[in-house]
Batch of 2 targets.
Target 1
Amino acid sequence: YQPPSHPRPSAHQSAAPSSPFSDPSQYRSYQPPPPQTTHEKNYCRTWNNSKDMSGINLSGADLREKDLSGRNLSNANLSNANLSDAFLHRVNLREANLAGANLFRANLLEANLKNANLQGANLIGADLSGSDLSGANLQGARIGVSDRLMVKLTGAKLSGLIMPDGTIHS
């Protein structure tokens, strides 16, 4: 028995049919996504896992319309964070840094803001009813338009509060 002979390709024919995978210059190496910043890593790790987020760095984070109710954010860095329309009912923000934060229409009902830094924060439309603002610093914070107070403070504790104009509430 003799196996059938196959004609050899001529110089004008290629030995194998061309394939989109046959040219190595067509391959691109895998590029991993850029690394997350520290506050994004910490935020992602703790967001769903824990009510205790004390000391977390969320500076500049976009937390619009997020529900952080009941969380412990004491000593957290939320400077320049966007918390507009966020639900922060009974959140612990004791000694938190909220300087320059946007809290437009945020619900801070019964929040603990003792000794919190709210310098330059936007609090227009925020509900701070029943919140403890004792010793908090609101210097330069936006709390109204002209002479109209646009922050709800019903039942809020204000002793030692530094007002937007720098005066201390007794």
Target 2
Amino acid sequence: MTSSPRLLANWIRHSAPLSTTFDHEHLGQYLDNLQRVLDDLPGILKSRQVAQPVVAHAEPSTPETRPDRPIPISTLSIQELGPEFVKRQIENHSWDPNTADQAGATFNLFARLMREERGITRFVDLRQADLEHFNAHLLSIHKYYGKSSRERNCSIAELRAVAATKTDAERGLSIGTRTRHFGFLSGLFEMAKETEDLDPRLRPAAFTGKKKVRARDQRSIPKPDAMAKFFESPVFVGCRSEDEFDEPGPLVFHRAAYFGPMLAHYQGMRREEFCGPAVNDIVLDNGEHPYIHVRFNEFRRLQNNQSVRNLALHPELVRLGFLAYLDCLRNLGISRVFPDLHNPLTRAALGDRLYKELQPIRERLGITPHQFRHFFNNELKQNRVPRNFGKI
């Protein structure tokens, strides 16, 4: 047959003769045609049961494609993911601005080192040997790396050139600082694992450790006569000029170098606590006695939440004009107690600048304002002040 009818009944109906008179010749044709239809029937039924599938055209799989694993959605490089992680930690209130700044500096240094000396920009290409290279770099740069924001734009070669001019004692970050760097990297790697296949053998913790001796135990408690000599320095009793404050003269300048050590001595405050208070942190109208409200502010952070406290202002500070000094700052619209410590060109701690100004006195007498807190606490202990009063 040239064409197959849809149904056998339809074929018979369309093939029937026009005459209704019984005709043996037509009967023979019917039987022949019927036999051919029956012979073709299995093929017709098979074609009707097996429908043509709808096939979606797809690209053939390549050896790199692993359908059983999600395809990484992140295309961020090491340099780019660092700021994203910092942003996440700030939004989660996990980091304060100072911690976020330290972490950002770590990520920037690590990304530059990997790119410039290892040729690596992606997390998937990192190996443990690359972390060893980073640790070796931390041991070779100068001890005060990170104090200046300008160093963030220096190439690794430039940083190595600066380190080459230093002595062995001036090179290499402390174990505490290196531990902080690798701690930040551990967090960054955890974020990268959300979208990238990192080498499971990466172990930043292999380069961390603890100080054998706490910094507070490394500093001795100054003797009373050493404390007296410190406050007999020209900056307190009369200096030649604002710049020559360690030379005897008739002038006294109310500034951080003058009041800062006094706050450490009379109030027992930590370095950043007395270097970074706001003018409004000294409360004058809440009770009979003025006090210092030690709190987190926009100029510096505190060690922890337990560091928030109120300290009654020592009468000697009042006598020496501290409140009059604050009035001058208010009249000038200045919100920092020690604006002379603020340098917009650097992110170094405020206490670093004060220590640099006091360097001649420190070197001459061998003590620092940080030791004043130990002297203060020891004096309380020797005078048997109860711990609930002396714990400031």
